[in-house]
Specification:
Layout (H helix, E strand, L loop, with lengths): L1 E7 L10 H9 L2 E6 L5 H14 L5 E6 L9 H23 L4 E7 L9 H10 L4 E6 L4 H9 L11 E4 H7 L7 E5 L14 E7 L7 E6 H19 L4 E7 L6
Parallel strand pairs: 1-4, 1-5, 2-3, 2-4, 6-7
Antiparallel strand pairs: 7-10, 8-9, 8-10
Helix pairs in contact: 3-4
Length: 254
């Protein structure tokens, strides 16, 4: 029996861990840390640093190479095949390091419930016959880190928020009827497809990390600054994680 804890670790700052997350890590028999290639070595280094700072007992740490997603074919097909490969990799590590069962922990950026597929991958293990109990420890999301960094409310007064992806924004434009949107998983600058008039943007990259970067302002002015800065940061670090919130002007309060 595998007792799998999916632990939200925030956006890279060890101070973002909850007391529940720290306890779950220390109660685990094994923590698996994925390596994502040399260009993203900062990500494994941050996980290593988090473990070094909070672990006080005999919890074992094992690193493994995360499968690479095939960019060919349809997006959903490629992602599903990639998730299958990740589940296979997890299964191999569990078979080797927890052959008699035990408590396994995976450290998830942000929160496992928000634009993260760890829960879906864990479901594959169940379908393939692994006896597993999944428990989720919530974490600070990049959205919370973004609004905190800019000291702004997430939602307009008594209004809704739409959370979407860069791919959806690029393919379909501004969501119909939305006033405030949050864009995640943007591989480029999808806001460039929008007519910028009347839109304000709040952008952040590497939120919570030492090299956190922030920009805000009218989209017409801030958009080009963000695009230039984003390219520079990506070239410098080899990877980038960013998120942004945009609002359209309204006349009945905010």
């Amino acid at each position: 029996m595998i007792d799998l804890h999916l632990i939200g670790i925030g956006t890279g700052n060890p101070d973002h861990l909850t007391a529940q997350a720290v306890a779950a890590m220390n109660h685990a028999d094994l923590i698996l840390l994925p390596r994502k290639g040399s260009a993203k070595s900062d990500l494994i280094d941050l996980r290593r640093d988090i473990c070094a700072r909070v672990l006080t007992g005999p919890t074992r740490i094992v690193e493994f190479d995360l499968p690479v997603r095939d960019a060919s074919g349809t997006y959903l097909g490629a992602v599903n095949s990639w998730h299958d490969a990740i589940a296979d990799a997890w299964n191999a590590q569990v078979t080797e390091h927890l052959p008699d069962g035990g408590k396994l922990a995976l450290l998830v950026w942000g929160d496992p419930s928000l634009y993260d597929s760890t829960l879906r991958i864990a479901g594959r293990l169940k379908r393939w016959g692994m006896e597993i109990a999944v428990r989720v420890v919530p974490g600070i999301t990049s959205i919370q880190a973004l609004t905190a960094a800019h000291a702004i409310p997430l939602n307009p007064l008594a209004g809704p928020v739409t959370i979407t992806t860069g791919r959806m924004l690029r393919e379909h434009g501004w969501p119909k009827g939305a006033h405030t949107i949050v864009v995640m998983l943007d591989g480029g600058c999808a806001f460039e497809v929008l007519e910028p008039q009347g839109i304000t943007i709040w952008w952040g990259a590497y939120l919570g990390m030492a090299h956190e970067a922030l920009e805000r302002g009218a989209l017409a002015d801030a958009g080009p600054r963000i695009a230039t800065r984003r390219a520079d940061l990506r070239a410098r670090h080899g990877w980038i994680m960013d998120v942004y919130l945009m609002r359209k002007e309204q006349t009945d309060g905010a």
